Prior knowledge:
The protein is about 70% helix and about 10% strand. The strands form 4 sheets. It has a 6-stranded antiparallel sheet. Among the domains are: about 1-140 and about 910-920 and about 935-975, P-loop containing nucleotide triphosphate hydrolases (Rossmann fold, 3-Layer(aba) Sandwich), CATH 3.40.50; about 435-560. Residues about 850-855 have low confidence and may be disordered. The chain is α+β, with helices and mostly antiparallel strands.
Amino acid sequence: MRIRGLRMQGVGSFAQQVSVDFEGLTSAGLFLIEGPTGSGKSTILDAIVYALYGSVAGSASDLGRLDSHMRSESPWVELEFEVSGTTYLVRRSPAHERAKKRGDGTTSVNATASLMVLTPDGLQELATRASDVAEQVQGIIGLNKQQFVSTVVLAQGEFANFLDAGTGERAQILERIFGTEFYKRVEEQLQVMRRRARTRRSDADDAVADMVEQCKGVLEVELDQADPLSAVDAALLALTAEVTVVRASAARADAAMAAAEEDLRVARSIAADQVRKRSALARLAELETTRSQVQSWRTALEAHRRAIPLVPAIGAWRTAVNEAADAQSGLQASAARLQDLGEAPTADPERLDALVGELGGLGAALQTEAALPGLRVDLKQRQVQLQQAQMELGEAQRAVEEVETSITRGTQELEGLPDVSERVAAQSGRVEMLQRRHDAWVQWCEVEQQHAAAVIHAAEAQEAWQSADAAVRAASQAHLRDHAVQLAATLVDGQPCAVCGSQSHPAPARPDKGGAVEDLVALQERAQERQALAMRLHGDATKLSGLLERLAAEAGPYAAQVPGQLADAQSALADAQDQQGRRQQVAAQLQVLVGQRPSATEAVTEARLAEQRCAVQVQTAMDTLASSEHIVEQRRLDHPSVAARVCHLEAVRDAQRAALEALRLHQRRREQLQRSLEVLDETLERAGFPAVDVAEAGLLDPSRVEDLETEVKAWDDALTDVERTLRDLADVDLDHAVDLEAIGETCAAATAHARKAAAQASALQDRLERAGPRREQLQARVEHAVQVRADTEPVIRMADLATAQRHEVIHRVKLSSFVLMRRFEDVVSAANDRLDAISEGRYQLAVEGHGLDARTQAGLDLRIYDGRSDSKRSTRSLSGGERFYVSLALALGLADVVRAESGGVELGTLFIDEGFGSLDSDVLEEVMDMLEQVRVGEDRVIGLISHVDLLKGRIDPRISVRRDPARPGVSTLEVHV
């Protein structure tokens, strides 16, 4: 794991955003974080640990120190680190307070966290919750927070505290680092399992004892506790024999009881029949006393049944009487309505017909009256339209006058403008000619400069070609003179010479300067290239010369005067074009006005016709309105309007109709009353009632009818039952006496004896039946107790061993303490390897293991062995410098063991916070040598946090932390590579 970069804002004393590129610092393998005390050096380590695990490095610190009190923005930390070639980016923001966006005061902001990994496609998000980020970081790095601050970030004072810690405190630290709480959980789990096992044993034994007690209670004998099963079997045999004897005695008693019960049943039957007969005779006498009352009830019920058919006829008669009275009231009301309307109080069919005819004749007048408002509105609209038409006629006449005036004025202006079209054509031709000459002159000036340059370049290329050609001729002559050198160049070892035939060439001719043939070829190629370039440039100059001659001819003589002549000609052309444009504009406007004259004249004609039509329409509307008002005035008579007259006539018509209907209804109701009276008289006579009131008096309430019928039926049923009972008991002799008491006593004695015998037999049988299953259960529980003891023996033995409660456990040391001792011995061994070099063989750490027992943390006491005095003493007796390098060696040893325990986790970075100021120069050199060995041997980059000047002079790569003089409490940092 290697830290690559850190960025933070609003953290600790760093109120503004700061960043640290650790990649630039790690090239030398060792860098320094320096600054005054309290300036914020340790805040860098806190920020690293917080970014990874969500808490700060020091055990005595809290997250409150991360939130800067001088910040203006929200605090955050962003850390970039690399593990196994993969780059990760983690970002956290602690919980903090920020100013409210509206109003005064602050609002709380929750902590946030995110973890991302760098892929070829960019950053990919892995987690966004704080707990998930911490879990994923621990999985990626392979270390928890305690292991990280013990191997990567050695926080200020932490490893010195570990050296001076007491046994219990040191045990807690080691448990957090090595995770040995697992073994404590194993001990606790084994203790729980042991308690459960012992509980199972106790429960099994209690179950056996409980079943023995149950068997004793059922068998009612004492049982041998040593062999309860055999004792139960013997008691069961004795109980079985006793049950057989008692059953025989109970059978004899049952037979005697049955005979006595039969005698008692017969006697009770005779006595019961005598009681029933006497009761029936008494009931008959009682019924005879109420016979006359029952007969009166029968007479009333008969009268009620005869009066029931009269109810509909009586109801119809009373309804007819009421309806006739209602019809008489309606007839009187219709007469009063007619009088209110000024009519005679009697219905008159002829008057009704006259009213209908009169209303029919007023329909047209009513429609005419209803149309009057619309006619008045239409007249006003027609008058408005007439006024509008008159206005439009005036506007059209004024438009014609304006067109005529404009035509006259335009004709006069056109006659005053001369025709300059010929002058425009002449000036246009002159401008075009001068423009061509001017363009040719400008181009000639440009080409003339190009031609001069081309002539110079062609001359230079010609000279270069001639020089290259001379060099080629010189090289060719030298090549011909040195023919021997050429022949020597063709000689090959082992092949005959073309001149002497020898295959040995001990001293071939050598040229004074190598590569003559190759030089000649290169010179020839260069000469050919320069010749081609000279010819091409000469051709370009010739072409430009011809172009100059053509352009000079196009420009003509006195070409320098052409620009002034062109400007004068363009000015004259512009003046002529302006005059011609004005004449054309006036002519076009005059043509438009002449074209508008017919439409303007036509518009006047149409407006005059429209005005005449509107005048006719207004007069027609006035005549129609006057005629309609005359008709309405004639037909309304003395009423306010025709509608009011129609309303009155309709009311009279409706009253006449209602009166006629009331008269007809009154006649029908009188006829219905007469018919209902005739039907009632006939019904009364048929039912035998002299009058209506007599018949109504015979009617009973339905509940009373039901009660009487129930009473009569009950009396009849009772009489029938009594007579039936007396017939059945006719043979019963009331004078025969039965002694039930004596017979009952005999039966009770026989029953008691039989029940006692049966109870005794049942009790013995019940004991026998209950004892059998209990014997089986006792056997099962005994076997279960034996099996439980065998099953629980391994668990109890294992728990006793793990918790040091067995005598065979060496020193009575618990499992968790034993594992912790072994890890601590490894740490001390690794620390001594480094301490031996720093102290020049003087000091060694020693683990005290005396007096081990199960009640203390054994084997975690530290002593310092002094080789000079060959003695052991407390670590607290060390001086400040000795204490620093001993605790540093212990911390590095702890880091080595943690790294090995974590499967060889890659630890690419190590931070060591403070403590160097207590070392003298010699010891400081030893410590730096040891750190150099760590850096080189383990390929780790080491960052030292200190304000010691000696380290500043020795280590160049650094992070300088300084207080901001302008802002008390605020620090800045600067990275020096």
